[in-house]
Amino acid sequence: MRWLFLLLVVLNFSYWILNERLAFRQGDESAASSSGDAGPGIQLLSESEIAARLNGGRSGKNECLFLWGGLSEERGRQIVQRLLSLDIASSLERFKRIVAEDYLVYLPPLASRHAALQRLKELQARKIDSYVIAQGELTNGISLGVFSRAEPAEAAVRHFREAGYEPAMRELPQVRQDYWVRVAPSGARLFDEHLMESLVQSFPKLRQLKKECEGVASPVRLE
To answer: Which domain of life is it from (predicted)?
Structure first.
């Protein structure tokens, strides 16, 4: 009976150890499985990556649409009104640009109008085409000619110096006014090829340019 009792004790102890080992192995496998399933779905993002995702990859630059090409102020306003009827906000702006330069050869201003007229008579007596400048910062100076290119103007300066005069040369920019229609970023997104084609039918020289809203320098907005 004693041996039978000891045998039962040993069998119970062995059965308990076996159950403990099985439970421990199942726990390890369950933890590994959970870790493997969750791993690919977990990503650590830096603040810059989060910001990029929230912004949808946008650069942050606002682009306006500029319409230009042979526009007068009146025709520019017509385009603004047509776009307004389509709920596209725009504005008419005036730009000044230099289209060419002339070159003035002149004698610097004299002390008085009388002195300028006396010098003019002297030049005309020598068959030199000239006239007294009547206004501006060169008042009472004497024009010796206006040239469309720098080379002839420089040659004239040399010629008059050889004749005993002290001429100077100045650039005279020719300024032209252009009118552009600026379409705001919100309206530029609504602007498509069909609308552009419709505008070109009424304004054949019309062109479009898309760039940053502050890309064109020194505009003068017309109210």
So the answer is: Bacteria
Query: Domain for residue 44, yes or no?
Result: no
Mapped onto helix, strand or coil, the DSSP state of residue 90 is strand
**Rounded Cα–Cα distance for residues 164 and 62 (Å):** 60
Tell me what pLDDT residue 21 has. 55
Question: What is d(CA 70, CA 75) in angstroms, rounded to the nearest whole number?
Answer: 9
Please tell me the predicted confidence (pLDDT) of residue 192: 86
Statement to judge: residues 74 and 163 lie in one domain: no
Rounded distance between C-alpha atoms, residue 183 and residue 180, angstroms: 10
Is the confidence at residue 135, as pLDDT, over 80? yes
Tell me the chain's radius of gyration from C-alpha atoms.
43
Cα–chain center distance at 200: 24
What is the total count of domains within the chain? 2
- Residue 49 domain-assigned? no
Render pLDDT for 154-167 as a digit per residue (tens, 0 to 9): 999 999 999 999 99
